[in-house]
Amino acid sequence: MEVADGIQECIETLRDLKSCNAEHSYLKGLFKKIDKVERRAIISEVGTAVFVVSASFILKIGIGTVALTGSILLTCGEIDILMFFMYLIIVSRLYDPLQSALQNLAAVISLRTNVERMDEILFHPLQEGSQQLTNNGYDISFENVHFSYGNGEEVLSGVSFTAKQGEVTALVGPSGGGKTTISRLAARFWDPDAGRITIGGMDVVKTDPEKLLSLYSIVFQDVTLFDNTIMENIRIGRRNASDEEVIEAGKMAQCLPFVEKLADGWYTMIGENGCELSGGERQRISIARAFLKNSPVILLDEATASLDAENETAIQRALSSLIKDKTVLIIAHRMRTVENADKIVVLSGGHVAEEGRPDELMERRGIFSHMVALQKESSEWRI
Q1: Are 59 and 99 spatial neighbours (Cβ–Cβ below 8 Å)?
Q2: What are phi and psi of 17, to 5 degrees?
Q3: Which tens digits make up the pLDDT trace of 273-325?
Q4: Up-side HSE of residue 179: CA atoms within 13 Å toward CB?
Q5: pLDDT tens, position by position, 159-196
Q6: How far apart are CA 330 and CA 294, in angstroms?
Q7: Sheet containing 327-331: order of strands
Q8: How buried is residue 122: exposed, middle or buried, by Cβ count under 10 Å (0-12/13-18/19+)?
Q9: Cβ partners under 8 Å of residue 218, min gap 6
Q10: Burial of 221 (0-12, 13-18, 19+ CB in 10 A)
Q11: What pLDDT does 325 receive?
Q12: What is the pLDDT of residues 99-153, one digit of tens each?
């Protein structure tokens, strides 16, 4: 597992390793992992071979023993020649299936580790819930929510706030404060350890995840694309959408400028995870999906972080029409992205440190005001 992860990581980060002159040292560590796996594989194969060879040897001895014993009994007149040959035929016919059974048993034993890993997935608890949506409106409320990942470290501690329908609620704060975790919990990618999350009064934990996600349009910080055409990558947002609807969503997300430069336009294959496109182009396709899905709740996690100022401004104008009368939860680090938000929730250390309108938080001279001042100072920095 470590070797597979290391090889994949090496391929994905090769450019960074080369730029930092770290390729040799990284490969040295990777080769150590490969050598370790080789030694473990040799030990496993030798153990299996000893088992199979020993068992086969015992079976071979069994054939010889039957022949020797039968010969003695035949000489003493206790069995006749027909009975002797019958025993020889039976024991010789038993050898092949028993040999195959031993080899299969050895293969099953060698697969034990793989089976254990698959069992971890197969027996992982399933998220279940009601197929009936009972929400009254689309206000998202967090009530004293606690959450921690598998390592036991608490990421959210007693988080409470409400993102109202028809308003833009922005989550800001230092990195690691729990902003992305909140968006994932709202969409029930995970369930909280304690507390309650509701949408329109409906408890999300008691709602079927697939049914719940029909209410959400989500733009992730890390964009995932498929080795398919631009058209089909956008159509993921709504599978039954027509080509005209897909193209319109793409235009709203400012995809047209780069699509026009491609030989096959909207039908251009973009490679594995969109490797043929730039980061900003990949981000625009992700935003186009949200436009196409057009759900009543919109979650934007650094949706415009990879865009230049011109495209960001154009997409923000398009988003303004999309978010009308909807519940919008925005995660952003750039303060200009959230300066017109109806409500700011400042997260720090897994707690809600501040909450209110942007102008109110500026007057308090707290964390939000400090972040705005720092970004203003950095924007004026010159080389």
Answers
A1: yes
A2: -65, -45
A3: 777 888 778 888 888 888 888 888 888 887 666 566 666 676 676 677 677 77
A4: 26
A5: 888 888 888 888 888 877 788 888 888 888 888 888 89
A6: 16
A7: 216-219, 297-301, 327-331, 168-172, 343-348, 351-356
A8: exposed
A9: 183, 187, 290, 298, 299, 300, 301
A10: middle
A11: 79
A12: 777 777 777 777 777 777 787 778 777 778 888 888 888 889 999 999 888 767 7
The residue type at 338: V
Radius of gyration of the chain (CA): 32
Burial-class residue 270 by CB neighbours within 10 Å (0-12, 13-18, 19+).
buried
Q: Quick one: tokens of 325? A: 């009368």
- Angle of helix 243-252 relative to helix 279-293, nearest 10 degrees, comes to 120
Q: Which CATH architecture has domain 140-379?
A: 3-Layer(aba) Sandwich (3.40)
**How close are the terminal C-alpha atoms of the chain, in Å?**
45
Angle between helices 23-75 and 81-110 (to 10 degrees): 160
Residue in the block written with tokens 């035949």 = 74
Phi, psi (deg, nearest 5) at residue 65: -65, -45
What pLDDT, on a 0 to 100 scale, did the predictor assign at position 142?
A: 92
Q: What token pair was written down for 207?
A: 């709602």
Q: How far is CA 324 from the centre of its chain?
A: 30
Return the amino acid letter for 187: A
Amino acid at 377: E
- Type of residue found at 10: C
